[in-house]
Write a structure and sequence with these properties.
This protein is of the alpha/beta class. The chain has 2 domains: 47-111, Ubiquitin-like (UB roll); 114-283, 3-Layer(aba) Sandwich (Rossmann fold). The chain has 6 helices and 12 strands. The protein has a 6-stranded mixed sheet with strand order 7-8-9-10-11-12, with helices on one face. The longest helix is centred in the N-terminal third of the chain and has 24 residues, at 16-39.
Length: 284
């Protein structure tokens, strides 16, 4: 190490260890000061700011966060633990937690998207696209009713695992302004949906559902009046069955949707019960 003399002849290299020790001492004093302030409650969590939820949901997020924090201060709270507790709430898909000193926790939540209604022994519950049960709906909702056994539907916050029910949820989650589903079930040939304006769409298995919905929309737009069902089991060769006559490939415009029936007003509809033909029997 090269040494040089300062104005007073003191070797500056010799001062380096003292500067290091002094810096460490200042850091230590600062930490001790923070710890002292922490003991006085200066860094207590006194506010939870929620982004992405309002009303009752925001209040539930705040309660879950404060319950998880407990007596911890802003210095010792673990954001990951708080985020996990908030994400466990029914209706919350994910949460991010940041600390804003001196006393604010900022929580940004992503809400679950309800896509269907499911029957239970105690009434209907909302189901999210993720398969999570969100609890009973508040008021009237226009979502398709899926077919399931009560044992397939866990309590609020639980996740559905039954494969057949998850396929129906996946169909309900496909966005479409034209193919408006009133109810979804399973027939002999797979997934069948009843439309709000009347008629059915037969989807076969749960593969390529977004593609099948687009094909069904195109067939419906070219249908001449009402129809019994559209079969998109094989999306490259869709079939349209009108109210009378033989199944046809769709060639002409335009279905006029009927009035929206109330949720649950399905009469004696059974998935796949209308003519037992499918694309396989039509085309061999």
């Amino acid at each position: 190490m090269r040494e040089r003399l300062g104005g007073g002849g003191i070797r500056t290299a010799a001062l380096a260890p003292f500067a290091l020790v002094a810096g460490m001492a200042l850091v230590g004093l600062a930490l001790l000061g923070l710890m002292g302030l922490d003991r006085t409650g200066a860094f207590g969590v006194d506010r939870v700011a929620v982004v992405g939820a309002k009303g009752d949901m925001a209040a539930a997020v705040r309660r879950a966060a404060l319950s998880t924090v407990g007596p911890a201060s802003m210095l010792t709270v673990e954001p990951a633990h708080v985020a996990a507790a908030v994400a466990a709430l029914p209706g919350i898909q994910a949460a991010e937690v940041d600390r804003a000193f001196p006393g604010t926790l900022r929580i940004r939540v992503t809400r679950e998207r309800p896509v269907a209604l499911a029957p239970t022994g105690k009434g209907l519950v909302l189901v999210a696209a993720s398969g999570r049960v969100l609890g009973a709906p508040k008021g009237r909702v226009q979502l398709p009713l899926i077919s399931s056994a009560p044992s397939d539907i866990p309590g609020a916050g639980g996740r559905i695992t039954a494969p057949g029910v998850l396929e129906q949820i996946a169909l309900a989650a496909v966005p479409s302004r034209t193919v408006k589903l009133q109810a979804i079930g399973r027939g002999e040939d797979g997934i069948v949906a009843r439309l709000r304006g009347g008629g059915e769409v037969r989807f076969g298995d749960g593969s390529d559902l977004p593609v099948k919905v687009k094909v069904a929309r195109a067939v419906m737009r070219r249908a001449d009046g009402a129809f019994a069902y559209v079969d998109v089991t094989v999306p490259t060769a869709p079939v349209l069955r009108t109210g009378a006559g033989d199944p046809l490939t769709a060639n002409a415009p335009a279905l006029t949707p009927g009035a929206l029936p109330p949720v649950g007003d399905l009469g004696d509809w059974v998935a796949g019960a209308a003519p037992a033909e499918s694309i396989r029997t039509v085309f061999g």
